[in-house]
Specification:
Length: about 400
């Protein structure tokens, strides 16, 4: 039996690679998990009540695009957060988590060719792995652009040659960035949107970490595009309740864009989508409408930033994250450091190379480890101190 070759060169996914690296070694102490960005703070207690109150909706097929209440709550949130007014009927669709949307948006929107050539999909490097797989799935060429300390840990798409930009159909950008915690400024967004206008490509703005930040809310791509008068189909926004509300398992995401963009995305969803169950849509609508729990959640992360800054004060190369809940820590060798800290302390972290592409010596993540600050504050502090003393002591 034959199998397709299109995915034959994919490296093993990050977490199977991590298990292969660590699991045949005994931990050197009480295990502290700092690998997966799975929030551990409490979600609002009333979410369960809303699901129970709407349990009868399990009897019905859920609305494919999201219920009117859910889409309305999402549009209200976008208006509050970004000052951008969207039409629930034309501009937004509920997702079963943003990974689905980030993948299927490429399926729905990336053309078969760009200026008569194979299209290019721009990806930051390091990056969320679904960007690469989406590009490969639509027959496009993923083009990895380093997001390093030299570029402020965001990709410098403007430095690309014209022959690359003329073939570019889609540019993925994550702000706040996973894994580095860097935030795209208004000027950064304006430059990128201007570049997209000049070379006629779409921007897929992955803003899933937008509600976890130190002091100032990160600028959103939609608001900058509106202020610039950019083409209404230029920017496609993705966000979710996973990080904002500690509801990774609820799988409530959103995609927002121009009416023609959403028309194509909805058409694909009609054939292949798996909508969120009705009771969960009802709960998600309530959660999108509530900000009190988001502020409480943000305060918990801000306290963790302070812990990390204290623990790593004086460590050469430490970059305090602007937003999100990851530390991107410089080391001599990410794999060796992850193995060392596991064997000597029981702290489990992710080698940065597993989140990036490139041969040894050319992989922008190989001299980093990613540390997820999702554990309770006291556990996090213990783990960070162990990690610091083991690697930098």
């Amino acid at each position: 039996m034959n199998f397709p070759e299109r995915f034959s060169n994919l490296p093993a996914y990050a977490f199977p690679r991590l298990r292969a690296l660590l699991d045949h070694h005994a931990p050197g102490g009480e295990v502290v998990h700092m690998t997966i960005g799975e929030p551990k703070h409490d979600f609002p207690a009333w979410v369960t009540d809303v699901i129970v109150e709407n349990a009868h909706l399990f009897q019905s097929y859920p609305p494919n695009e999201g219920s009117p209440a859910l889409r309305g709550a999402i549009c209200d949130w976008i208006a509050r957060r970004y000052g951008v007014m969207l039409d629930p009927e034309q501009n937004v669709m509920a997702l079963n988590g943003t990974r689905e949307g980030l993948y299927n948006a490429a399926m729905a929107l990336c053309p078969e060719n760009k200026n008569g050539q194979r299209p290019i999909v721009l990806c930051p490097n390091p990056f969320y792995q679904v960007y690469m797989v989406a590009a490969i799935s639509v027959g496009a060429e993923p083009h990895f652009v380093p997001a390093t300390a030299a570029t402020g840990h965001l990709p410098d798409y403007a430095s690309l040659p014209a022959e690359v930009l003329n073939r570019t159909a889609v540019a993925y950008i994550c702000s706040p960035a996973n894994p580095q915690g860097a935030v795209a400024s208004r000027d950064y967004w304006a430059e990128l949107i201007g570049l997209a206008e000049q070379y006629d490509f779409r921007i897929f703005a992955d803003e899933c970490y937008s509600e976890i930040y130190r002091d100032t809310a990160p600028t959103g791509a939609l608001s900058v595009a509106r202020d610039m008068g950019a083409h209404p189909e230029r920017v496609v926004l993705f966000n979710s309740l996973s990080k904002r509300s500690n509801l990774a398992g609820l799988r409530s995401g959103v995609i927002a864009g121009g009416p023609e963009t959403m028309k194509h995305v909805k058409q694909l969803r009609n054939y292949s989508g798996a909508p969120l169950p009705g009771p969960l849509q009802a709960a998600a609508a309530r959660v999108w409408a509530d900000e009190a729990h988001v502020e409480e959640n943000r305060a918990l992360y801000q306290a963790k930033y302070a812990v990390a800054d204290q623990v790593f004060a004086g460590v050469q190369g430490y970059m305090p994250p602007e937003a999100g809940f990851f530390l991107w820590l410089p080391v001599d060798d990410g794999e060796a450091s992850a193995l060392k800290v596991w064997r000597e302390t029981g702290v489990r972290v992710l080698p940065g190379a597993y989140l990036a592409q490139g041969k040894p010596g050319q992989n922008p993540g190989e001299n980093y480890i990613r540390v997820a600050m999702v554990a309770p504050k006291e556990e996090l502090q213990r783990g960070l101190i162990k990690l610091r003393d083991c690697i930098y002591g």
